[in-house]
From TrEMBL:
Lineage: Bacteria, Bacillati, Actinomycetota, Actinomycetes, Micrococcales
InterPro entries per record: AA_ABC_Transporter_Permease, MetI-like, MetI-like_sf
GO biological process, one term: D-methionine transmembrane transport
Name recorded for this polypeptide: Methionine ABC transporter ATP-binding protein
Membrane topology category: Multi-pass membrane protein
Pfam families named in the record: BPD_transp_1
Length: 205
């Protein structure tokens, strides 16, 4: 549980710190956006699209040389979390872009009429109006991170998924495996409930 918690928490932090601004950049620089920049949009959008299109296990294997270069090993919970961070950024960047695209079109007009610059538009209009959706999207992304973390046992990441496979499935202890799966489901339901409550609490529309 501790290893799974580490991988998921690290992914949440990375997604929030890097995925949010990347999603905002894609939103702002798109054709018809506040500050269209084709080169920037193409690069940012390509990163998100390519990383999200990779089957996760293959992406982990693909990243092994880079992981070894950074951590001098590709095994262990910390090293295994490294490729998950890249995926977390791509997933949440796309979710952030989608949330911003769903905001009322008049919001940008209101910001412009008040003389707001790019930074003010982002922090005083877009993030304020989209905060509820962003929290809900982060909740959905977190559930995906829990699912992905169960795969990282293949590269020595450990975690509850690896525990279920190693001591449940491979040793034919199916009771242990089913109990572990039930625990994962319970954790996911708790995360979903918490995220929904927070999202509703900060939604003042």
């Amino acid at each position: 549980m501790g290893e799974t918690g580490y991988m998921v928490l690290a992914s949440i932090i990375v997604a929030a710190l890097f995925g949010t601004p990347l999603g905002i950049v894609i939103y702002l620089t798109r054709a018809g956006g506040v500050m269209p920049r084709r080169v920037i949009w193409t690069a940012a959008n390509a990163y998100v699209t390519i990383v999200r299109s990779f089957p996760f296990l293959l992406f982990v294997v693909f990243m092994i040389p880079v992981t070894r270069l950074v951590f001098e090993t590709s095994f262990g919970t910390v090293a295994a979390t490294f490729p998950l961070g890249f995926v977390a950024v791509a997933i949440y960047a796309r979710l952030t872009e989608q949330i911003l695209l769903e905001l009322p079109s008049g919001l940008l007009l209101a910001a412009e009429s008040m003389g707001a610059g790019i930074v003010q538009t982002v922090f005083r209009f877009l993030l304020v109006e989209g905060r509820s959706g962003l929290v809900y999207a982060l909740t959905s992304a977190t559930i995906s991170f829990v699912s992905y973390s169960t795969v990282l046992g293949v590269v020595g990441g450990g975690g509850i998924g690896d525990f279920a496979m190693r001591y449940g499935y491979h040793q034919y202890d199916f009771t242990l495996m089913y109990v572990t799966i039930a625990l994962i489901v319970a954790c996911v339901m708790l995360l979903q409930s918490l995220g929904t409550r927070v999202s509703r609490a900060i939604d003042h529309r």
